[in-house]
């Protein structure tokens, strides 16, 4: 087993310089992009792997924002059609946090504020960082950065999204406890209404941290 000389015992044994990209070929470019890689990498047992071929879904970075109203203990989630959920038994309209892709030259906080305005009609001043993660490292390059924004959610429900981007987004407001109860509910696989990682991670973070927001008033 290779020795890990990094500062944390949670760090992996190898780094990016332990991978050799032999070739990269674009196999699809449309709404999304996919490339075919030929590569080899170092092995735990020593030496290098044989050349292997893998397809990689190029997705870039995205930002997700959980909207929380501490005064009324409310959470807002978007509801919209998702192509990847077409075979979902509950149907392809999913409840999620506000989210959007990072465009060139944008900071993560700028993306968060832009998306909250577009998908929820609200302006955001304070953003609380939650976590950053790779949702599908086996085949996608996407990294998602999660935030929590404190907002006034009374009367916030409505239909939002950019028509030129074919967005049809319904903002829904729930008592926080309703979402928590759904997450804990005894649903059959594929039937829980809260079944995507961005929402699950964000809500679990809120459960661990919401006490520090209890006496805070969201910006008007």
TrEMBL record:
The keyword Magnesium applies. Its cofactor is Mg(2+). Its EC number is 3.6.1.13. Gene3D superfamilies: Nucleoside Triphosphate Pyrophosphohydrolase (3.90.79.10). GO terms for biological process: nucleoside phosphate metabolic process; ribose phosphate metabolic process. One of its GO terms (cellular component) is cytosol. Keywords: Hydrolase, Magnesium, Metal-binding. It catalyses: ADP-D-ribose + H2O = D-ribose 5-phosphate + AMP + 2 H(+). The keyword Acetylation does not apply. Mg(2+) binds at residues 99, 115, 119, 167. InterPro entries: NDP_pyrophosphatase, NUDIX_hydrolase-like_dom_sf, NUDIX_hydrolase_CS, NUDIX_hydrolase_dom. One of its GO terms (molecular function) is metal ion binding. Residues 58-207 form the Nudix hydrolase domain. It is an enzyme of class 3 (hydrolase). Acts on ADP-mannose and ADP-glucose as well as ADP-ribose. Prevents glycogen biosynthesis. The reaction catalyzed by this enzyme is a limiting step of the gluconeogenic process. Belongs to the Nudix hydrolase family. NudF subfamily. This is ADP-ribose pyrophosphatase. It comes from Microbulbifer okhotskensis.
């Amino acid at each position: 087993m290779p020795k890990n000389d990094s500062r944390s015992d949670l760090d992996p044994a190898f780094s990016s310089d332990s991978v050799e990209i032999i070739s990269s070929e674009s196999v699809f470019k449309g709404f999304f992009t996919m490339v075919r890689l030929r590569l080899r990498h170092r092995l735990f047992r020593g030496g290098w792997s044989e050349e292997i071929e893998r397809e990689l879904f190029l997705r870039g970075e995205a930002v997700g924002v959980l909207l929380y109203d501490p005064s009324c203990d409310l959470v807002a989630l978007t509801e919209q059609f998702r192509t990847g959920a077409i075979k979902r038994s509950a149907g392809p309209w999913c409840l999620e946090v506000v989210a959007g892709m990072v465009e060139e030259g944008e900071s993560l906080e700028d993306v968060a504020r832009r998306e909250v305005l577009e998908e929820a009609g609200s302006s955001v001043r304070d953003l609380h960082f939650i976590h950053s993660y790779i949702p599908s490292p086996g085949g996608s390059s996407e990294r998602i950065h999660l935030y929590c924004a404190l907002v006034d959610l009374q009367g916030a429900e409505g239909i939002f999204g950019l028509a030129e981007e074919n967005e049809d987004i319904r903002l829904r407001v729930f008592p926080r406890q309703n979402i928590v109860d759904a997450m804990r509910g005894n649903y059959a696989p594929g039937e829980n209404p809260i079944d995507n990682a961005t929402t699950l991670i964000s809500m679990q973070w809120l459960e661990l941290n919401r006490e520090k927001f209890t006496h805070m008033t969201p910006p008007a």
